[in-house]
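pls design
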């Protein structure tokens, strides 16, 4: 089954965070990740709001976890750690209903 990265982010240092975004994109793509949402309009319905929301789909849960743990992504993440407040969850997608 495919899996989703769902991130909620408050950027506190735009210049440093831009370095993260520049390096993270290729690392995510190298593991089969495709962005479904990257910023854009949103309306917070429940819970704590963060102004940036990102969703990426991976070919599998294991691929999503491997991407996060990869040296390429961890190098990118080093730029985000002091430049943002983030919540990130990896969720396996539900299979479509049988017809």
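designed seq:
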């Amino acid at each position: 089954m495919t899996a989703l990265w769902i991130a909620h982010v408050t950027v506190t240092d735009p210049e440093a965070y831009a370095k993260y975004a520049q390096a993270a994109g290729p690392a995510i793509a190298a593991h089969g990740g495709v962005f479904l949402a990257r910023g854009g309009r949103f309306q917070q319905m429940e819970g704590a709001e963060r102004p940036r929301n990102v969703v990426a789909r991976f070919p599998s849960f294991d691929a999503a976890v491997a991407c996060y743990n990869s040296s390429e992504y961890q190098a990118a993440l080093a730029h985000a750690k002091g430049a943002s407040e983030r919540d990130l969850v990896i969720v396996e997608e539900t299979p479509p209903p049988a017809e």
